[in-house]
Amino acid sequence: MPRAQAAVALSTLTLLIAPDAAAAEPSAYPVTLMGGLSVQGAAVGGMSLGGVGTGRVIIHGKKLSLDFAGGEGVANQELRHVGAVFVGARKPFGPDLYGRFGFYHQHETPWEDFVSSPVGTIAAVDDHIFHRSGAQLAVGWLRPWDVAMTDDPWRRVMSGVELSVAALPDDSGPKVIVGFEVSAGFGVGERRR
Asked: What's the pTM value of the predicted model, to 2 decimals?
């Protein structure tokens, strides 16, 4: 097993069996909607630097949350459009810290092909798209904007930062992609008491 895959597997095991922190609680709202911008770089299997804008839906459970994300961006290794999809789980490790792990899929398109067919590329249905799949592991900090009144709508707003590592084992592009994301979002639904 390559080192990157072994590291992701070990981190996943730690994430899933680690004891809950005493302060760890699910979100005060059942769903969180997030948007973020990330810088991504790769140096294993090819050099690359780029950026991705991401939208995320988090459905909170008592110990684990479901995490769904999609993003669009650009990378400079043979200039190309990059689309990404993530489906996985998120676990809190305190009031603001979390880890997440799951399936990561990326589609990459040469820039000229993206310009000639942007709708088909973003929809991931054109023939010129290279599809790659693997796993992504991330740790982050997500902080609610607390205010004095608990029913104030601004209490729903939150912001955070995240560091992620994606392992994509095939040879059509970089095998390990590291990302740093800054995000903001808000809680949705009836507040839990």
From this structure: 0.78
